[in-house]
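=== RUN LOG ===
request id: a7f3
mode: sequence -> structure
chains: 1
length: 383
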Amino acid sequence: MASWNSTGIDEDQVLVEEKRFARILTLNRPKQLNAISFTMVSRLLELFSSYETDPCVKLVVVKGKGRAFCAGGDVSAVAHAIKESEWRKGAHFFRKQYTLNYLLATSSKPQVSLLNGIVMGGGAGVSIHGRFRVATEKSIFAMPETSLGHFPDVGASYYLPRLRGFFGEYVGLTGARLDAAEMLACGLATHFVPSERLTQLEEALCRADTSQPSIISAIIDKFSQTPILHEQSAYNRLDVIDKCFSRRTVEDILAALEEEALKKKDNWINSTIRDLKKASPTSLKISLRSIRKGRLQDAGQCLIREYRMACHVMRGEVSEDFIEGCRALLLDKDRNPKWEPSKLGLVTDAMVERYFSRIEDEEWEDLKLPARLNLSASATSKL
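=== RESULT ===
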């Protein structure tokens, strides 16, 4: 479980190597699949903040130790805090995490993330906002929050709606798992490099005395290959995804999918329907609203809104699905959550709207993001 103490940062959870003008950061909780703890977020925030003004740092490489890049945030620690009536501790964790996401999205120093393994939830937050995302044959990406009674956060409402068509809605609502070829095709990854070549790539990046994205991209290109998109890939069903997931409500999306299922026998359509029906109805509705809002907002606005939503989720005034999801999937592991409200039709527009409103608590305030100066063109485009 994460420590909630902001002092005495444990550096071992993030290993730091200095190689000329490059810094190699290794997420180091392999037994927990590098799940992002409060300690890890604090350390990364400290490091990236210092790199911004350090002329000796021109490039940052982020990777994970073991078989995962990062399997998400330390959700069980947040759930434990809520059960102890300490939701503000969870809010403190999310505030730091979302500030880190913003720093990465607007960083003046290029970040290369080596996504060699599982990349989920919070792991996407420390990688997808960076300039370069290198997938391998071991990469698996997912935003599985709706099955946990949460919603795709860490800035997902910014990057998901910027994927082609309505693929972001599909990924965010269903928690679908994507392989490296799908990540590259939809834009979540910028390159594909076989895992056996990552060490050579890292060495080449460290030799490059530059912050120039074009030069860094050219170096990665030398090691890159084009993975084959599987015939059964969801990305090959963009026509159906766009037709169904462009609908206005979750009920409309499900109805459109069920209509498609009647037209042709397709296991993918049936499994997509099953995934939606297993997820928290409240989570599905607030997630769709969040992604739709994100289409018209910048990265900072998305994170500020997601912070409000996360605080409402933790307070559990509208629904306690997050605690129930954690119980069913992470604690008891019976994989049989009892959602409340139990059906989409019972989740009203007024209930959904509550998640996007300010918290009615005198001690609470909106997420305040740091001012950003001397931004690169790619960072400015996110604001």
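=== NOTES ===
The beta strands are 14-19, 22-27, 59-64, 68-70, 111-115, 118-120, 132-135, 140-142, 178-179, 191-192.
The chain has a mean pLDDT of 94.
=== END ===
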